[in-house]
Each structure stands twice: as C-alpha cells, then as structure tokens.
Amino acid sequence: MSEDRLRIRRALRDESDSDPNIQLLASQPTTTCRKDEIHIFDGKNSPQNISVYGFLLGMVCSAGLMFACVSNTAIPQFGIFLAALALFHFLEYIATALFNADKLTLDSYLINHSAHYHAAHAAALVEFLVEYYFFPQWKRCGWINYAGFLLVALGQGCRTVAMFSARHNFSHHIVDYKEKDHILVQHGIYSIIRHPSYFGFYWWAIGVQVLLINPVCLVLFVYWLHRFFSERIQYEEYTLSRFFGQEWAQYKAKTPTMMPFIH
Questions:
Q1: Which of 135, 132, 157 is nearest to 77 (CA)?
Q2: Which of 64, 122, 188, 232 might form a disulfide with 83, Cβ 3.0–4.6 angstroms?
C-alpha cells in the first residue's frame, strides 16, 4: 500500500484493505475545553487575581487622596484612612515579592487576613459614619486628626522599614523550624525595637482610630491588639529561643518592644 493511501486511510479511520500488521491508534476522547471561562475573585493565586487586587488597591488609594486633598469636604480624614489602608496592603505584597518571592501568594496582600480583621475595619467605618451623621461636630478636622495621622505614618514607616531590613528573614507566619539561611536580625530598626513590624502595625491601627476620632473602636482596638500581640509574641519568642538560644536571650534583654504592657 502506498504511503499516501495509508495516510488517507488513517485520517478517515478506515482499516479496510489495509495492512493487517498496521494498527491504527484509537481515537482519544474529547474533553470540553473551558479556556473561555473567567476565573476571578475566586481566591486562587492567579495572575488575574493578583493584578486586579493591585489595581483596586491603587484605585482606592487614589480615590482616598483625591477625597482628602481635592474635594471640599469636612472630613478629609476619611479619605486619608482609605488611602492608608490601601497603601498598607500594597506594601505588604511588594515587600514579600521583593524578598520572599518563593512564598508569594495572593494572601501576601493580607486582604483576606481573617474574619476578625474585616470585622474590626467594618466596625471602625460604621462608628465613624454613624457618629458623623448624628454628631458631625465631633468629626471636625483638628489636632486630634493630625496626631492620628502621625501615628499612622509612624506605624507604616516602621513596619515597612522592618520588612526591608529583615528581607528574606521576614514572614507573615510564625515558622516552627529554622531554615539554613535564617538569621537573627539585629541591625537597623531591629537594634532599637524588638518586633518592629508588630510595633508598626500596633501603632498604625491605633492611629487610624485616632485619625477617625472613633472613641469606642479606639478602646476596643487597644484591648484586642494587646491581646493578639501578647499571645503572638509569646509564641514567636518561644520559637526564636529554640532557634537562637543565648543569642536571642541577650538580644531580648536589651531591646524593648515599645508596645504598652507587652514585654
């Protein structure tokens, strides 16, 4: 049988009059292709989700700055809060991408941190809007707002500097084993503050409530932040003691946390 004729028979799946020693391959079952389906906001670490999260954070940050600086509003602190919140999550992702690319996921934005985190910010927004509606004079921009803004800037600055100082040694999660390249960071801001990233978030979160002049949430935030960081730092320092022994003990003895009642 000629080669051309055999090729045609194979294409037509026709084995009649063909060489009995030649067995045509069985056809493969066809599967439905779903390439055209749109997968977004599904929580997966996909390029489309990462890009959309970044885009939306940029939009929120820009909108907040415009609301605070351009619009003739009586509550510019609300715009500053939105900008600070978006910037916080964006910087968390950038720092992880720069120094821990192998650990980079969609969760590195810390947007899906926990239900408690979302509830805390929701409560802060509700309190601000309710109080502004019933008692607008409470929310007039003044020195209290400026003090809150300074705390927010201080907290964000310290946290970002801490992440850039620790580099690959920084992690959003407490690790239970010591990697080969894991060192006890003691230079830069770590020589002044123990757990500077926690220090940064602690004062950032409190600063937000001062900025918004939220008395109820301020008290609640102080309570929950103290409880959260007391427990987290206690466990993290237990692991650091196992990793670094006497080196950690000496560092801890000379370096404070600078968070009230958290030693």
A1: 132
A2: 64
Cα pseudo-dihedral 84, 85, 88, 92, rounded to 10: -160
Tokens encoding 24? 């045509």
Cα–Cα dist 201/163, whole Å? 12
Over residues 180-237, the pLDDT tens digits come to 889 999 999 999 999 999 999 999 999 999 999 999 999 999 999 999 999 999 999 9
Q: What tens digit of pLDDT does each residue of 43-92 get?
A: 888 999 999 999 999 999 999 999 999 888 899 999 999 999 999 999 99
H-only helix segments in 135-245: 143-166, 196-212, 215-244
Contact 24, 13 (CB under 8 A): yes
Q: Are 158 and 217 in contact (CB under 8 A)?
A: no
